[in-house]
Amino acid sequence: MSFARAIATVGGLTMLSRVAGFVRDMLTAWVLGAGAAADIFFVAQRIPNWFRAMFAEGAFTVSFVPLYSATLERDGRDAADRFADQALSMMVAVLLPLTVLMLLAMPLLMLLVASGYAADSGTFARLVELGRITFPYLILISVVALQTGVLNALGRFGPGAAAPIMLNLCMIAAIVLSVQVGIEPNTALAWGFTVSGAVQLVWLSVSCRRAGVTLRLTLPRLSPDVRRLFRQMAPGALAASVIQINLVIGTHIASLLPAGAISYLYYADRLNQLPLGVIGIAIGTALLPTLARHVQAGDADRVRHYMSRGLEFGLLLGLPAAVALAAIPEPILTALFQRGSFGPADTAATALALQAYAIGIPAYVVSKVFNAAFFSRQDTRTPVKAAVVTLATNTGLALALSPVLGHVGIALASGVAAFLNVGLLGWGLHRRGHLALDAQVRRRAPRIALAAALMGLVLLGLELALHDLFTAGAATRVAALAGLIAAGGVSYAAFVLAFGGFRLADARTLLRR
User: Fold this and answer.
1) % of the chain beyond a pLDDT of 70
2) pLDDT value for 375
3) Cα–Cα dist 427/430, whole Å
4) 507 pLDDT higher than 70
5) What does the pLDDT read at residue 394?
6) Please, what's the b/e burial string for 63-78 (b: 16 or more CB within 10 A of its CB; e: otherwise)?
7) What is the mean pLDDT of residues 263-277?
């Protein structure tokens, strides 16, 4: 599969997942709104997601995929599959007791991540209950991450990218069931969340079998390959998960703010995650095994080519997404979420957070490319140094800005910190001589930026012209938003082609194997 096709596969399936996710979030906003009931569910859901992002899909994936790819390139498929079996066995051996421990220590864990709820014993007890329901998701999705890593290294990107769709479908079903049967909505959502982990596990197991991969649990042992995996995972846990750790910090600070702050940040981040998932994750997922193979083969020209194309794709898609979310946040939120328990005041508060988050989108997308360059060389230590500085900066900014700007200060701190992170990563690559980009991306980057800026002006003008439509019924608002997005997309395509930021002939070239 070509690099562009891999990005298109992961990005397209991730887009379907995000669409299903928006349906889920619209229903969640309808039944829970943005009050305390929604806040505690979002905290309970985020805890296993944080662990997943930091250790399963974060540290494990960025350490495992290059090692598996290198073993595959050097020793063949059988040796690579034996390494995967060993990694799976150690993962289960570590995560099973961890899950039991966290279930027992859930009150202390909740106190650490959301101490603002400790003063209300009833709300805090409910938070602990939801946390115990959702935490087992961690072990299920960790095995899914390993299965996805194996398939990605073999060039099969579709099954892993499709798995999150099942998460959203399970949670949509849980919401519908809660309304029909009369179950407490956040309890139903918590169970839907955990059940989705089992559904994804079954899906990936079937996909692995179809690819000729049968992962087996063996007696856990620290073989040389497994020891090397764990050594690289330690710094990788932090380096691969800067945004997730920023969210942990932001949630803790937000729990000290008035009710609704966590919900505003959650809904804003869900929209922010659309370009991050469709673009950033797609590029990072496709780029890591691709770079790892060429680094292992010592092909510097191909490494430079794919680094350049990854950065070019990231800017081509990430910059207009960031500009659009910053330019028209209220129309987007009004059309998608404003109904039922989610009112105009919630829309206005969430829009400000979304604009602040959008600032960091280009930096996040570029950091995916830079991190892949380090991880493909099995270097997880250098990115962790940048991550430590970034986290300290994010924490300091969030603490300084939240008393003045409230929840918006937390989102703004995350966006600013993302640029610091990508600057440090870029400098680290430059010092090692690994940031050699080709002339094409250097020529096109400023033209892409200009096209995105002009598209933003078009969106602002159209928002004023269509203002009355966004105060009408839900169907009219959604139709108006669709027209606004279509006009923005057409204008951006026209500008970027006119300025030479992209050529139609490139599409045919990029899709070739």
Assistant:
1) 91
2) 81
3) 5
4) no
5) 87
6) bbbbbbbbbbbeeeee
7) 82
Helices (H), 211-260: 224-239, 242-254
**CA–CA distance from 501 to each of 95, 227, 312, 441, 492 (Å)?**
47, 45, 9, 9, 10
Counted residue by residue, the chain has a size of 513
Quote the radius of gyration of the chain (alpha carbons, Å).
Answer: 22
Phi, psi of 70 (to 5 degrees): -65, -40
| Cβ pair 390, 424 in contact under 8 A | yes
User: Which residues make Cβ contacts (< 8 Å) with residue 125, sequence separation at least 6?
Assistant: none
pLDDT of residue 59: 65
pLDDT for 260 beyond 90: no
DSSP 368-433: HHHHHHHHTTT--HHHHHHHHHHHHHHHHHHHHHHHHHTHHHHHHHHHHHHHHHHHHHHHHHHHTT
Nearest of 210, 185, 218 to residue 82 by alpha carbon: 218
As a whole number of angstroms, the distance between CA 241 and CA 428 comes to 18
DSSP designation for 218: -
Tokens of 243: 């945004």
What is d(CA 323, CA 422) in angstroms, rounded to the nearest whole number? 19
d(CA 472, CA 449): 34
CA distances from 259 to 85, 205, 339, 403 (A): 46, 41, 19, 15
Q: Is 122 exposed, middle or buried (0-12, 13-18, 19+ CB in 10 A)?
A: exposed
Residue matched to tokens 């193979």: 293
Q: Distance (Å, rounded) from C-alpha 364 to C-alpha 426? A: 12
Interatomic CA distance for residues 264 and 116, integer angstroms: 16
| For range 212-234, the mean pLDDT | 81
Q: At 286, which amino acid appears? A: A
* pLDDT at residue 166 is higher than 60: yes
Angle of the 158-181 helix axis to the 282-297 helix axis, nearest 10: 160
pTM: 0.69
C-alpha distances (whole Å) from 433 to each of 283, 295, 306, 366, 368 are: 22, 14, 16, 17, 18
Tokens of 319: 């910059």
Closest CA to 131 of 98, 95, 99, 106: 106
Is the Cβ–Cβ distance between 376 and 410 less than 8 Å? no
Question: pLDDT at residue 103 above 90?
Answer: yes
**pLDDT (average), residues 317-330:** 92
Q: Tokens standing for 513?
A: 């194997």
